[in-house]
Design brief:
75% of the residues lie in helices and 0% in strands. The protein is an all-alpha fold and 283 residues long. Keywords: Cell inner membrane, Cell membrane, Membrane, Transmembrane, Transmembrane helix, Transport.
Length: 283
């Protein structure tokens, strides 16, 4: 009976995975296409101000309404996908390689190297990410690249700890013992044999963590430390809408819905990848 239940759960998981993965990839495709073709998709100039049309509710002309400067919210939401996706790419490029390199080096070398690298990781892991990001942006100045650097500073430790744990398990495996018997050691062993086995879990963690990164980036924009105005950015748009949220709710609801959609997109992708790549779901 237990075996039948286990097989039924595995079957349900395999059925659920394509749906979540397809849904997440479909939403991501929409975001990417919106960012690439924003000049053709946006019905108005996102920075054009029309004070006579300020704070208009959603209508046939302005599908999501207008903000306090008369700018079309739909156009600004579409253009707002650009800084968000660029920020995500910057953070992934900065955090995943650094975190995995530190984790695999600590797990493979062990000893004092592992202790030093893991204590450094623990220090960064204990830092409040948004507070440190705010402090860095305050020092470096607001901007897309500075925001990415600030968020990346506290985003790499989870990748390091995960890679270190997996490398420790692999270090005692027969798979690596056979590779050593063939004369493969050091960096070729790490890059050719350990990295491919640690990479799937890192991809899953990256997808699942992007939702939180999007919220942190929106938090920087909300506090006025993200992309400089008048560039369309979802966090700063929510901050502007917060001033009139009780009377003109759509000003904050439009970018807030975009943040929710983007976060759900990467959560769906991470969920689907985890179920697909985790071998425990197939047993």
């Amino acid at each position: 009976m237990t075996e039948l239940t286990s097989r039924s759960s595995a079957t349900q998981s395999r059925r659920k995975t394509p749906f979540l993965l397809a849904l997440g990839c479909g939403l991501l495709t929409v975001l990417v296409l919106a960012a690439i073709f924003a000049p053709w998709l946006a019905p108005f100039d996102p920075n054009a101000q029309h004070m006579a049309a300020r704070l208009l509710p959603p209508s046939e002309l302005h599908w999501l309404g207008t903000d306090s400067f008369g700018r079309d919210l739909l156009s600004r939401v579409i253009y707002g996908t650009r800084p968000t996706l660029v920020l995500i790419i910057f953070i992934l490029v900065l955090t995943v390689p650094v975190g995995m390199a530190i984790g695999m080096a600590a797990g493979y070398l062990g000893g004092w190297t592992e202790r030093i690298l893991m204590r450094i990781t623990d220090i960064f892991l204990a830092l409040p990410s948004l507070v440190i990001a705010l402090a860095m942006v305050a020092v470096l100045g607001p901007g897309l690249l500075n925001g990415a650097l600030a968020l990346a500073l506290t985003s790499w430790p989870p990748f390091a700890r995960q890679a270190r744990a997996e490398t420790q398990q692999l270090r005692r495996s027969d798979y690596l013992a056979a590779a050593r018997m063939q004369g493969i050691r050091g960096l070729p062993l790490i890059l050719g044999h350990i990295l491919p086995l640690c990479l799937p879990s890192a991809v899953v963690r990256a997808a699942l963590s992007l939702g939180g990164i999007i919220l942190s980036a929106a938090g920087l924009g909300f506090l006025g430390m993200g992309v400089r105005p008048p560039t369309a950015e979802w966090g700063s748009m929510v901050a502007e809408g917060g001033k009139v949220i009780f009377d003109q709710w759509w000003v904050a609801a439009a970018p807030g819905g975009a943040i929710l959609l983007a976060s759900l997109t990467f959560n769906f992708i991470g969920d689907g990848l985890r179920d697909r790549l985790d071998s425990r779901h197939d047993s």
